Amino acid sequence: MAVNRAIYHVGNLAESLLDIGDELLRSRPHSSFRLREIAALVPGKPGGVSHTAVFGHYDSMPDYLTALAARWWSRLEAELLSGPDDTPGELGVRYVSFALDHPQAFRLIYDPGLWEPSARGGTLARRHEAMHAARDACVMQFALATGVMPWAAALPPDAVWLRARLFASLAHGLAMEFLDERLFGHAGDGVERRKAQLTHAAELLELVVTGAAPPIRHPTPVVS
Question: Which fold has domain 60-211?
Answer without folding.
Answer: Tetracycline Repressor; domain 2 (1.10.357)
